[in-house]
From TrEMBL, chains A, B:
Sequence ranges assigned to domain HTH tetR-type in this UniProt record: 7-67
Keywords recorded for this protein, A-Z: DNA-binding, Transcription, Transcription regulation
Pfam families membership: TetR_C_27, TetR_N
PROSITE patterns cross-referenced by the UniProt entry: HTH_TETR_1 (PS01081), HTH_TETR_2 (PS50977)
Residues of the DNA-binding region: 30-49
Superkingdom of origin organism: Bacteria
Cross-referenced InterPro entries: DNA-bd_HTH_TetR-type_CS, Homeodomain-like_sf, HTH-type_TetR-like_transc_reg, HTH_TetR, Tet_transcr_reg_TetR-rel_C_sf, TetR_C_27
Annotated protein name in UniProt: TetR/AcrR family transcriptional regulator
Species: Streptomyces spongiae
Molecular function in Gene Ontology: DNA-binding transcription factor activity; transcription cis-regulatory region binding
Amino acid sequence: MAPTPQPLTAERILEATEEVLRRHGPAKATVVDVARALGVSHGSVYRHFRTKAALREAVTKRWLDRTSESLSGIVAGDGNGDGGRDPETRLRDWFSALFAAKRRKAGDDPELFATYMVLTEENGDAVGEHIADLVGQLRRIVQAGVDAGAFAADDPETTARALFHASRRFHDPRYAPEWEQPGTEDDFRAVMDLLLRGLRA
Amino acid sequence: MAPTPQPLTAERILEATEEVLRRHGPAKATVVDVARALGVSHGSVYRHFRTKAALREAVTKRWLDRTSESLSGIVAGDGNGDGGRDPETRLRDWFSALFAAKRRKAGDDPELFATYMVLTEENGDAVGEHIADLVGQLRRIVQAGVDAGAFAADDPETTARALFHASRRFHDPRYAPEWEQPGTEDDFRAVMDLLLRGLRA
DNA sequence: CAGCTGACAGATATTGAAATCTGTCAGCTG
DNA sequence: CAGCTGACAGATTTCAATATCTGTCAGCTG
């Protein structure tokens, strides 16, 4: 709204880009739109991001990182020795939080969710990093469970990857249309039960 | 090639449609093309299929049914009392066969596979029936395992659904690009191990 | 003189007129 | 007369002209 007297930073450009994407959608959001929203010429945007693709990738990374961070709280006191909740509950909570967060985003603002689907499809690398991040969180939960004698897992990394893949139906955005169908909650619980049963020592 | 003197049947139209889809792809395959391939006017095609969408749906169903049939052999002597292989091997074989079949189709003829991906996306109902069919096959294997005392499952239907969902990464065509990446084989084995461990009595 | 502007060339997207396709049906044909 | 044809209206797609956008850079400005 105001003529933005602050210095032009990468951060401010990213915020404006998110806003433009929200307003116009991924197909019609242009670098000129972003510059106009900031009250600068589009040449200035190119001073901070080499290409439009790089700008969109940065927006994608930011968004995926926010998701990772919101989950890291559940991985919690890993290695701090306080024990906390039992490993099984922790793992179940982590997946429930992931599923709930994704489902809420898809349900609350379908258009914005669709926009981010397009962004993730064109930025496979950023998604790969995000998945590696999530699998890392899972690995730490599994490792803690093995250490506590609650889980049996020869190789926590492999097990973490297996858990991630086996639950994709409930967090991969491509299944979003199916998340609202009746029975989804039951399906989720059934998969979790089966996986946790396979994990028990 | 030849002027096809045989009577015009739904079956012959479906075969010609598959051929036209193979040649022109899903975007450019027209009803006029199908009629031309058969040496008839396009009005005759509409005598057997009410709309173009109905014709494409029938082609989709045929294709999905062929996949189901190729797996039904593995469900095999369910209930015939001969025992056969142990339930765990049977289940593993079934999933291996499903994964191998999908991966072969995607790898051997990527264009045709992409064509059928488009068809399945526009025919959600047919896909739903196909999934129900596959889950039914799984349920029978699980039930046989429970009867033999090898598997623990309160509700074989629920368990079958869970097994299906947990393995989607390895048969849902949307993941096809990832099937050729290194480590996929290991990921598949890890998921299967975890699921079978969770299933054991 | 660091940071920004705006004109520019080539690439990409939009638009509207023309071509093709879908679905119908009255009538032809064997 | 059962089954097929082909002309037709409205819907959809194609294509080429036009407009917009991306990315660069010489020069302006505070």
